[in-house]
């Protein structure tokens, strides 16, 4: 069964607000309480002013004046919080952002699926191998991936580890984006190297040349200071584990506003977006910018309900809809949702997640996605908005800076036989560095030719 076929429509579901979907079955509630009490005393990972800054950047996306680029691992791991790995993801996102900024002639709001993306909703609660059945791996925040009872038993102490690893990652992100790492000229040099080295990358030479000329022009104007050497970068994750999120929720005494302080932007996943469920209720009480994934089962009524429940003041930048319908369905299903929201004049951002509706499992047992399906869903998303005169506000991707072989195709031409070579994801297949750049160059062309 594919993960898509196992995901189900919330519109058809029962369940009350008390029963949160996709929560671990913690075996030791006393220890869970000790852990959440400790987290409730811990320093915030992000600050309210930063969350407000992101909301105002996203307001520009909602108005059609900027793009959102959000990406990172499907599931971060504790062991993966290394300088090399964070550096690779950041580098990839910065390279993509330069290409998109040029293609769309708009600012790009950069948000990592980083520093908190440790918990996963799953299609099945258990995994069976031979005669043994164990709880499914739900991300390093909950249990371990190894197929043993000890590893798969949810351990609340992992929430402390999640907090610490998020802090370490954020420290790296802050240091790298504040220093010379994010220098525009340097990021462009990396793009040049990509275009030169990748066989398929040659077709992007013209765009790279144009960026080079634009940079030379800026330099000639004396523009080296400020925005060209540093990057504004935010972090996000799925707000899945309500025990963790509630423990890190703080009220700003100056404004009386309440924020999740575990990340700048949190989103509600496709599997936990019941309008009367506890995730929607928790999100209605925080002031961060927030997002909701919309799968093929999302109805216009439900989407309008989200607007009323989560953005009653119609604040631009507060609410982002992340569409993940699948390449085959996005052109049919999305127009009605966009039209209804537009008719209510709700100032939301529309973003495409072209990954989660295009997942399938190969004969070899690898969960994968084909680059062409990913690109096709993204293109369909852009076409729908173009036809309606609304703004295709950006993209939400699972990617890594590493040269993994998890998704098929792209200019590096990953084939089915190649998948096992460097398949290292802890959950879903990610675009590798060159596939991510391929997608950025394609998207930049579509924006430029609008
Ligand atoms: O990103 C998440 C996956 O799509 C989700 O966790 C479901 O994956 P599964 O079908 O392997 O459980
Ligand atoms: C689980 C995820 O997505 P969705 O909720 O859209 O299935 C995810 O983003 O990893
Ligand atoms: Mn995923």
Automatic annotation (TrEMBL):
Pathway as given in its UniProt record: Metabolic intermediate biosynthesis; chorismate biosynthesis; chorismate from D-erythrose 4-phosphate and phosphoenolpyruvate: step 1/7
EC number(s) recorded for this UniProt protein: 2.5.1.54
Top-level taxon in the UniProt lineage: Bacteria
Region (Disordered): 1-29
Keyword Amino-acid biosynthesis carried by entry: yes
The reaction(s) this protein catalyses: D-erythrose 4-phosphate + phosphoenolpyruvate + H2O = 7-phospho-2-dehydro-3-deoxy-D-arabino-heptonate + phosphate
Keywords of the record: Amino-acid biosynthesis, Aromatic amino acid biosynthesis, Transferase
Pfam families to which the protein is assigned, alphabetical: DAHP_synth_2
Keyword Nuclease appears in the UniProt entry: no
Top-level EC class: transferase
InterPro entries: Aldolase_TIM (IPR013785), DAHP_synth_2 (IPR002480)
Sequence similarity: Belongs to the class-II DAHP synthase family.
NCBIfam families assigned: DAHP_synth_II (TIGR01358)
The name this protein goes by in its record: Phospho-2-dehydro-3-deoxyheptonate aldolase
């Amino acid at each position: 069964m594919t993960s898509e076929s196992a995901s189900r429509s919330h519109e058809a579901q029962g369940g009350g607000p008390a029963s949160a979907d996709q929560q671990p079955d913690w075996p030791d509630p006393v220890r869970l309480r000790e852990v959440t009490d400790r987290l409730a005393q811990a320093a915030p990972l992000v600050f309210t002013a930063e969350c407000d800054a992101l909301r105002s950047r996203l307001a520009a996306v909602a108005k059609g004046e900027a793009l959102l680029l959000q990406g990172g691992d499907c599931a971060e791991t504790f062991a993966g919080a290394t300088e090399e790995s964070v550096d690779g993801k950041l580098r990839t996102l910065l390279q993509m952002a330069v290409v998109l900024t040029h293609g769309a002639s708009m600012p790009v709001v950069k948000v990592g699926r980083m520093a908190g993306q440790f918990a996963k909703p799953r299609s099945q609660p258990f995994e069976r191998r031979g005669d043994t059945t164990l709880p499914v791996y739900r991300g390093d925040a909950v249990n371990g991936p190894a197929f043993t009872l000890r590893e798969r038993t949810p351990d609340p102490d992992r929430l402390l580890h999640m907090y610490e690893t998020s802090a370490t990652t954020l420290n790296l992100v802050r240091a790298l984006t504040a220093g010379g790492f994010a220098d525009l000229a340097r990021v462009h040099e990396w793009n040049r190297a990509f275009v030169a080295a990748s066989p398929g990358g040659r077709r992007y030479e013209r765009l790279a040349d144009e960026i080079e000329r634009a940079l030379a022009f800026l330099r000639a104007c004396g523009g080296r200071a400020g925005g060209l050497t540093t990057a504004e970068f935010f972090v996000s994750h799925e707000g899945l584990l309500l025990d963790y999120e509630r423990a890190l929720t703080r009220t700003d005494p100056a404004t009386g506003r309440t924020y999740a302080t575990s990340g700048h932007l949190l989103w509600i996943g496709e599997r936990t977006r019941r309008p009367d469920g506890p995730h929607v209720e928790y999100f209605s009480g925080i002031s961060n910018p927030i997002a909701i994934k919309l799968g093929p089962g999302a109805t216009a009524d439900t989407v309008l309900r989200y607007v009323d429940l989560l953005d009653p003041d119609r604040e631009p930048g507060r609410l982002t809809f992340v569409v993940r319908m699948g390449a085959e369905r996005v052109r049919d299903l999305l127009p009605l949702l966009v039209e209804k929201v537009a008719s209510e004049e709700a100032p939301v951002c529309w973003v495409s997640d072209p990954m989660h509706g295009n997942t399938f499992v190969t004969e070899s047992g690898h969960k994968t996605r084909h680059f062409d399906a990913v690109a096709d869903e993204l293109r369909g998303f852009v076409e729908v908005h173009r036809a309606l005169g609304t703004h295709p506000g950006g993209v939400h991707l699972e990617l890594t800076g590493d040269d993994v072989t998890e998704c098929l195709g792209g200019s590096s031409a990953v084939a089915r036989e190649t998948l096992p070579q460097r398949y290292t994801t802890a959950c879903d297949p990610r675009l590798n560095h060159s596939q991510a750049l391929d997608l950025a160059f394609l998207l930049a062309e579509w924006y430029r030719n609008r």
